[in-house]
Design a protein that fits this description.
Blueprint (H helix, E strand, L loop, with lengths): L22 E3 L4 E3 L1 H8 L8 E3 L22 E3 L5 E3 L1 H5 L8 E3 H59 L4 H48 L3 H6 L4 H5 L4 E5 L3 E3 L7 H5 E3 L3 E5 L15 E12 L5 E6 L4 E6 L3 E6 L4 E6 L8 E4 L5 E5 L4 E6 L2 E7 L3 E8 L5 E7 L5 E7 L2 E6 L16 E5 L5 E5 L4 E5 L5 E5 L13 E6 L5 E5 L4 E5 L5 E5 L7 E6 L5 E5 L4 E8 L1
Antiparallel strand pairs: 1-2, 1-3, 4-5, 4-6, 7-10, 8-9, 11-34, 12-13, 13-14, 14-15, 16-17, 17-18, 18-19, 20-21, 21-22, 22-23, 24-25, 25-26, 26-27, 28-29, 29-30, 30-31, 32-33, 33-34
Amino acid sequence: MDPHSSAQDVPRCDLCETATVHSYCDFCHVNLCKPCVVDHISDGYHKHLIVPFQERRSTLIYPKCETHPHKNCEFQCKDCNNILVCSSCMASEKHGRHKFVEVTEIYKTKKEVIKDDTEVLENRISQAYEDIARDLENQLANLDGGYEKLTSTMSKQGEQWHREIDIVINKMKTEINEIKVKHKDILQKHLDEIKQIQSLIKETLHALRKLEKSTEIFPAIEYSSKIREFSKLPPKVQVSLPTFIPKPIDHEKLYSLFGQITPLSTATEENVLLLNKPNTSVRELLDEPEIVTTIQTGHKTLCSVTCLNEDRIWTSGMTNDIKCFIIKGSLLQTIKTKSGNFPLDIAVDSDGNILYSDWSTTSVYKVKNGEREELIRLQGWKPNQLCVTSTGDLLVTMYSEDCTQSKVVRYSGSTEKQTIQFDDKGKPLYSGNYYTKYITENRNHDICVADWAADAVVVVNQDGKLRWRYTGHPSVTKNEPFKPIGITTDKQSRILTTDGENHCIHILDQNGQFLRYIDNCDLKNPCGLCVDNNDNLFVCEYSKGNVKKIKYLK
């Protein structure tokens, strides 16, 4: 703020500090009253440029020509490496027939770049680094709480084993503390790097602000943008806590069966700066997921649910009725299948039309404006479950009519684009039968299939290459075999799959690491599931015919 003016005062002279400002020296950048103008120019310095105060900072300061010191360089020679020249240089033989550009045009362009760079650096890039730093600081701040939960879990297990297991507990606690030190070192190292870059950004912003205020041409022309350099954000560091996995007591194999601590896992995720789109913050899992509402659908057996928007869902079961409900519970619309048989699955396309697969006609149908039209008809295969991808393609799991083969096929409209069936060794990726194989696409374009008969979640990348398989998580409370049914993903690229036999939901990260169960919402035979744009979870209860809306993120 100008020390000689305020919201209640007019600008004052910088020399006498009392009189009202009248003029301005565009070279020295000082406010002047009428009497002080004479004093200011009395030093005989010929570069003073006195202008009315309202026209301050309007005079461009040209660099002097080295060859003709009495002349200003007002042009740039395009044929001589863009050097600045005066009018006398232009008329010389050295620059005969050369092309020239007025430096004012270059100056104006560069000023716009400086202005834009300042805005981007200040409002977008700096904020992105602030978010990264805040995330790392939050991870550091939450370390103790996370590790306290680990040691607490271990202690509860240790109470059952009494004194004979105390030595094992102490050894594992030491291991955890060592991992914690490594965990903290990793986060601190990346935080220090971010802080260092933030310091460089602040320095650059300071220099840019000086350039914005300056009317000197040469520094502005010489300015080189660092936006590209700073826009290359470092990878986002998400170091996951180790987990303690209890095992049944066996006295002879005390240490190995007591449990295990997963090694420290450092995941780096590409962190792309979108200059015209705000970043979506990562939402953590709730310690205790909670039921928001229960929708009674009237289906005796309920298989599938898909979100139309934040207010409406479509459901289907073992009848030919496909029902649309308002989240509050009221039935809005019912569609019947063309064949009269129940659909194996439903999905909503990018235009909001409902799609369903019909095993009896070996077809996939689209319902648009109430009219059912055949979108895909298969030969020798029967459609199973469906997924509409982020690009608008349709993924269909299907099985051969003799029930010996299964595959995933990608369609664009009615055109087949890709088939996924075998791994690199030529072995089938999926079990060959007619059992359910619910399918979803993750945000990294991985294709995730819940293969019920194979007791596994099978994940391939968008090219169809096998990434990993998940076959369940050791647990003393989950006694039935892992049989995944429904599957979906959220905005954090987490994968959620229903375990109907154990009446729970498994939550995995995008690399197949188990994160936690949802097993506290009184789920009964959970089947199909989906998440809406706000990451609210909707789960079908197969035998009850209900859809439960569950909040599982903070």
